[in-house]
Amino acid sequence: MPPKIRELIRDLERAGFVNRGGKGSHRNFKHPKLRYSVTISGNAGEDADRYQVSRTRIAIEESKK
């Protein structure tokens, strides 16, 4: 069962990412160590797509370096 969007958001915030807002159901998260932002789309209760889970995990790992 895929994680929910709210779980991805929680993981990003715990890793030090800051929600910079967005339009509609899109949220942009930025980390001071990374040159790019991670965009999460969808409502909090929806299941996350595979690409969203993958991009979130990669960004969290890169932020730890």
In short:
With 65 residues, the chain is of the alpha+beta class.
Weakly predicted, low-confidence segments: none
The number of helices is 2
Write out the strand line-up for the largest beta sheet, numbering strands in chain order.
1-2-3
Shape: globular
Number-wise, the strands total 3
- The radius of gyration is 11 Å
Largest sheet: 3 strands, antiparallel
Order of helices and strands: HEEEH
Q: How would you explain this protein's 3D organization?
A:
This protein has a domain at 1-25. The chain is globular. It has a three-stranded antiparallel β-sheet. It has helices at 5-14, 50-63; strands at 18-19, 26-30, 37-41. It is built from two helices and three strands, in the order H-E-E-E-H. It is α+β, with helices and mostly antiparallel strands and 65 residues long.
